[in-house]
Amino acid sequence: MHQAHRRCLLPGQRQGLSGRRRWRQRPRTCRLVATVAGRREVVFAPGFTLDGAASPTLRDEALGVARAAQTVVMFLGLDEAAESEGFDRACLDLPAIQLDLLRDVAAVNPQVAVVLSNGGVVTTHQAERHARAVLEMWLGGQASGGAAADILLGAAEPGGRLAETIPLALSDNPSYVNFPGTPDRVLYGERHYVGYRWYDKVAREVAHPFGHGLSYTTFGYADLRAEVPDPARPETTVAFTLTNTGPRAGSEVAQVYVTDVEASADRPERELKAFRKVRLAAGESHRVEVRLTERDFAFWDERRHRWTVEPGTFRIAVGASSRDLRLSADVDLAVPLRPVPLTLDSTIGEWMARPAARNALQRATADIRMARAFGGDGALRTMVASMPLRRILAFSQTGISDDTATAMLAEANADESAR
């Protein structure tokens, strides 16, 4: 019953800031009051103060208003004391005083909707336990009051989608065990598994997945086609039909994810590569088409020092979130793959797999006792195949000069064919 970032939404709103209470006059632009004028009475009670101090008087007043109301809208969230620049939040929960009031209000009137105002993610399962609907407004600015009223009354739809995952608990976060780290060092151990990439990779249950969002209507997905004009070029056209299957107009954010089915590199389970927001009338259908390019299939290859697309099967999935995938299709790419440049840290097996590299290595080591490891001794070659060349040369004390090593590398990498 209080808007956390201190805007007047309802008539007669009393602010609860640092224990002070004051009345604000009704704004002429208050859409909620104007819309229900003559049909419903809108009554406001603050319920709590932003400083977190308990106020039995405010609580009792709020419970009295809630008990007499047909529907209760509670405005909860975080203020600048809970989240701001220069410090980190200690938890993801809403303030206890707000959750306690929500529980008590729902006990006297179960028809509760919660409107959230917060900059960063807050856990929602506690609010959802007592509310029939939760509207996440984030930090909506000075127009968020009117926007919330339009959505609550159905004049507008909640057309946004989550740009991040809402976890069940702080400990579910992929960086939880690494942050804040030691006093002078933080390990970014999650690597590229941030956000939905981590939750989906480990199949961790979440409160709401990346891309999720409800509307006042429903949508159906059908007839997915993924076409590769030239298998040697990593480009794909993805098309599917989106239909508004509900009773009113609305918009859907259709999302396209890509999975490398048999990647040699460590890659996420799926990655968002495209999305389209489509507005449809009730019963209307639209053919959505997106084009995926080389970068949509590529990963940064540290060995080749470039973006790389590996040949093989890729899965294209389409849906309403990273966890609500309605359609999928596989495509095969036969793109040519450049050999990994050989170095002295490459394995013996990698050197021996290339004719020019094998010849250069055998000539450079012909007079040392480890030469048979690079020649016909199958058992010894198998044993050392996974060892870096640099280590073998050090063990055998070849005394190969820097100039010889440089020439050997140049000859080895001039061979673009691999066996």
Side-by-side strand order of the widest sheet:
9-8-13-14
What letter string, H or E per element, gives the SSE order? EEHHEHEHEHHEEEEEHEEEEHHHHH
CATH architecture title of the largest domain: 3-Layer(aba) Sandwich
Helix count from the secondary structure assignment: 12
Radius of gyration: 31 Å
Which fold name is given in CATH as the topology of the largest domain? Rossmann fold
Largest sheet: 4 strands, antiparallel
Principal-axis shape equals elongated
Overall mean pLDDT = 85
DSSP E strands, number: 14
Could you name the ranges where pLDDT drops below 50 across 5 or more consecutive residues? 1-29
Distance between the termini: 71 Å
Strand content: 15-25%
The percentage helix is: 10-25%
Q: How many distinct folded domains?
A: 3
Can you identify the CATH superfamily of the largest domain?
Glycoside hydrolase family 3 C-terminal domain
Structural class: alpha+beta
What's the CATH class of the largest domain, please? Answer: Alpha Beta
